[in-house]
Amino acid sequence: MKIGITCYPTYGGSGVIATELGKELALIGHEVHFISYALPFRLNQFVENIYYHEVEMSNYPLFEFPLYSLALASKMVEVATYENLDLLHVHYAIPHATSAYLAKQILKSKKDIKIITTLHGTDITLVGLEPSFIHLVKFSIELSDGVTAVSRYLKEKTLTNYNISKEIEVIPNFVDTQLFKPNKDCATRKRLAPNDEKLLIHTSNFRAVKRVSDVIKVFDLVQKEIKSKLILVGDGPDRSECERLVRELNLYDKVLFLGKQEALVDILNSCDLFLIPSQSESFGLAALEAMSCGLPVIATSVGGLPELVYHNETGFIAEIGDVNRMAKYAIDLLSNEKKYQLFSANARSRSVNKFDNSIIVPHYEEFYKKIMQT
Ligand code: GMT
Questions:
Q1: Which of 16, 117, 120, 137 to mutate to test the pocket of ligand 1 (most atoms within 8 A of CB)?
Q2: In the prediction, which pLDDT does 184 show?
Q3: pLDDT at position 370, please?
Q4: Does 362 lie in the same domain as 277?
Q5: In this predicted model, what pLDDT tens digit does every residue of 120-160 receive, in sequence order?
């Protein structure tokens, strides 16, 4: 098949999934054309069968606001025509599904290009519900030829929030468990924990929904009981506030803000426990990558997280904001080696058995075939 993929190319789970999916599809012989405003950040080396088409933006002075959605639709038409694409698979509904719909209408007299929209999270639970987007999101979902959601939770939310009766296929996120695999001897650990401290880690885009300050509050309680450090990976609007909290709690020599990082496997492998105390989380790809490296996860009981993290098996689940309970769970795991090893093995085997790319990517391929026949 000839597949066009559109995603946000920057740091973020939806871009990761779109890119990794494209790479996997290219490996099995499909021709994949990425269409976006920048090269997706995990597309950092040559892969046969993969092409990248940059959306050019006009900066004509009359346009006070960039017309990205329109430029994207135009590029989709161009690529679909000249590369003879069979389908456009867009990740994150806003504005990608709408641009794809427009492209489909423009192409209609020449070909019936299929549109598949994958819903990832805040496109449905947060941004999509804003009055300026709600009608557009509902329309774009209803008019997509196929729709997938990354968790059962997200599917249900979409159907109820937008009063939609469309069929939505749940295809969970995936991880390359051969790449994200446990390696407890990795050299990075010695640098991050020179005094053999236990290492807790959180990675995110530091937005309010991630509640990174809860990570710091949990760690504050843990470090009082256990010799430990906290590794924070990523960047975003809440980072300064989190740095302030770390100074206020006198934790600056125990908390490392690493900023955006690409060598995540080594960093995860240096650590013992992953914290994801989100307010809302449709899936939690960052937690899956950690589990694949054998890290138990402490998460909140929101969104798709309970579909990924099994309480008292691969980690623990607590209520939003219950930092005392999360700290209790962390201390319990980090002070009980036998229990820790069991949870770590469970986290790894759940990733390998349920979320490996070799299991999930064929679901997408099957879904493409099904939609092509409609
Ligand atoms: O929805 C967002 O705010 C961003 C989006 C992204 O691009 O990273 O994250 C969502 O998609 C990820 C990949 O499917 C999921 O793992 C995240 O849970 C989800 N984020 C939220 O639901 C907050």
A1: 120
A2: 79
A3: 98
A4: no
A5: 999 999 999 999 999 999 999 999 999 999 999 999 999 99
Same structural domain for residues 210 and 99? Answer: no
Query: Ligand 1 within 6 A of 20 CB?
Result: no
pLDDT at 274 over 90: yes
pLDDT at 299: 98
Strands 87-91 and 169-170: unpaired
The answer to whether 238 touches 208, Cβ cutoff 8 Å, is yes
281 CB within 6 A, ligand 1:
yes
Residues 217 and 290 in one domain: yes
Domain that holds residue 244: 187-354
Confirm or reject: Cβ of 283 under 6 Å from ligand 1.
Answer: yes
pLDDT at residue 58 in the model:
86
Residue 282 alpha carbon, nearest atom of ligand 1: 22
Cβ 13 under 6 angstroms from ligand 1: yes
Q: pLDDT at residue 12 above 90? A: no
Number of domains present in the structure of the chain: 2
Q: What is the pTM of this model?
A: 0.96
Residue 11 reports pLDDT greater than 80? no
CA 84 / ligand 1 centre spacing (Å): 31
As a whole number, mean pLDDT of residues 11-24 equals 94
- Between the CA of 283 and the centroid of ligand 1 the distance, in Å, is 7
Tell me, yes or no, whether 147 and 270 share the same domain.
Answer: no
Q: Residue 339 C-alpha to ligand 1 middle, in angstroms?
A: 30
CATH of the domain at 211: 3.40.50.2000
Residue 41 binned pLDDT confidence (cut-offs 50, 70, 90): confident
Ligand 1 mean position, distance from CA 253 (Å): 31
